[in-house]
Structures are given as C-alpha cells and as structure tokens.
Design brief:
By secondary structure, the chain is mainly alpha-helical. The chain has 13 helices and two strands; from the N terminus they run H-H-H-H-H-H-H-H-H-E-H-H-E-H-H.
Length: 295
C-alpha cells in the first residue's frame, strides 16, 4: 500500500494489464488474508463459533496495521457482520450485509459516492454477489458437486475464478473508462494467473510481520518476499510490453457509462434473448468511437 515517488512507474505495467487492484491495499486483500488463515483454524473440526472468533481476530489485526480506505472499510464491515452473527449460531445473508455496509458508509460520508474507490469496490462486489452465480450456472451447467478430489477442486476453482474475473471485468470496464480513459484486454486471464502469487506474497509478508523479532525468520522471509515480488513485477512488465494489451486515452460521457453498466448487467442476467443485446453493444461501440474521433 505504500506509494513513493516511483509509484507511477511501478504501477504502470499492472494498470496496463488490468491487475492494478492486486497491487493496492484493498478489500480484495482483506478477503485473501481471511481465505489464507481460515484453513489453519478449520483443521481438527473446530466449532463454527471459534472459527468465527479467530476470523474476527485476524481481521482486527490486519485492519490495525494498514491505512483505512473505502474498499477496506467495505471489506472490514462486511466481514465483521458476516462472522459476528456466526458466534451465536446466526447468519445474515450476504446481500443484506452488502446493502447495510453501503448505506452505513454513505450515511457517514455521502461524498464518497462520487469516488472511484467506492464505485469500483461496491460495484464489483455487488456484481460478484448478485450476478456471478447466475453467469457461473450458465457457463458451467454440468458441474457435478458430488465428485470430490484435488483435481475436481482445481477445476471448480478455475471455473469460479474465470466467472468472477469476467463479471468483475465487465462491470468495471465502463467505470475505469470513465475515470481513467483506459481498458485492459488481458485483465481476466492476468487476474486468474496472478491472484495465487499475490496470496503467496501476502502470506510471506504476514509471517515476516508476525515473527519479525526473530532475525532468522525476518531475513528468510525478507529474501523470499523480494524474489516473489520480483517475479510478480517481471511477469507484469513482460505482458505489458506486448502490443495492444490495453487501449489508452479513451473519452466517454456519464450517459454512455451508465448505459454501458446497464448493458453489462443485462448480459449477466438475460439468458434466452441475450442475442438481442448485441445490436445495443454495437451502438455503444459506435457511440464511444464518435466521442473519441470527434474529440
């Protein structure tokens, strides 16, 4: 999350390849940290109550050492309201938690509505909660959940990662074009490839942070972390150097952005008459082309 004088130079390859969200401290990192530590407490059949208390403890420790921004607030509040009821054997629907979190942040600070961090954070999460399951069932209708094993788990993880990345990419495209004038054409595969490496980096950094008082552990984790970050940066720079991985300097309007988001939502939800959306997609492409060529 640190940003120095060389931030723009470092972040440019990640921005061009559509994975800058993996580089910045965000709600995604909160989710990844919880995802990594949950199996540790789940070993041995630990009760759900203690499982939830452990998750809340990890969440509190992580939030206490990072800078709090809108995506972090969203992830922190949602995680807390998801795990706290589990300590008393209750469960709040994720949709309700999302709506409550968004309302709470807007009541406390209404101006964040116009910030890209708020729009991307809640827009992407809402699409994952409301749209991703529908798209997943449509893309992979013949998944047999009763078959278990490492290979089946890997296949299901790839399928879900692809669906989530594609839906998040579709919803975020109009927003990133509106604010940054840029679109990455390799965001979906790059997110699927680089997310596991980011998980490893977060795990290594967490171990170094927790056991930093031990010189051997600190030095070992520091060297390992430097190599992991080098691999991440080198891969991003290599892909970013490929021609036409991104389109830059795109101009758009608020009306176009709104209609483009509505088109993406419609594509995710409509099944039988989805082909009727393609003429409107062509209209959106012609519209934004006119905006750019006329400018």
């Amino acid at each position: 999350g640190a940003r120095g004088d060389s931030w723009n130079e470092i972040s440019d390859p990640f921005r061009r390849t559509g994975v800058s969200h993996l580089l910045a401290i965000s709600g995604l990192h909160v989710s990844l940290v919880l995802f990594m530590f949950m199996p540790l407490i789940g070993v041995g059949g630990v009760r759900r109550r203690w499982h939830s208390l452990f998750a809340i403890t990890i969440l509190f420790i992580y939030l206490s050492i990072i800078e709090i921004r809108t995506p972090i607030m969203r992830a922190g509040i949602m995680s807390a309201f998801f795990y706290l009821p589990l300590t008393v054997n209750m469960r709040i629907p994720v949709k309700g938690v999302l709506a409550f979190t968004m309302s709470l942040i807007l009541i406390c600070e209404p101006n964040v509505l116009m910030q890209i961090s708020f729009q991307l954070s809640f827009g992407v999460v809402a699409s994952l909660v409301l749209l991703s399951p529908h798209v997943h069932r449509r893309c992979f209708p013949h998944v047999n959940r009763r078959i278990s094993g490492p290979f089946t788990f890997a296949i299901m993880w790839i399928q879900r990662s692809f669906t989530a990345s594609m839906v998040a990419w579709l919803i975020s495209i109009p927003i990133t074009i509106h604010h940054f004038g840029q679109i990455s054409l390799v965001s979906v595969p790059m997110t699927m490839i680089m997310t596991p490496l980011v998980c490893v980096i977060l795990l290594t950094a967490s171990i170094r942070l927790l056991f930093g008082d031990f010189e051997f552990v600190s030095q070992l984790m520091g060297n390992l972390l430097a190599k992991e970050v080098y691999i991440l940066e080198s891969f991003a720079e290599t892909v970013a150097g490929i021609p036409f991985v991104s389109i830059e300097n795109i101009q758009s309007s608020t009306t176009w952005t709104t209609l483009a988001i509505l088109w993406a939502v419609s594509w995710c939800l409509i099944d039988r008459w989805r082909f009727l959306l393609f003429p409107s997609l062509l209209g959106l492409i012609i519209w934004i082309s006119i905006l750019n060529f006329s400018g």
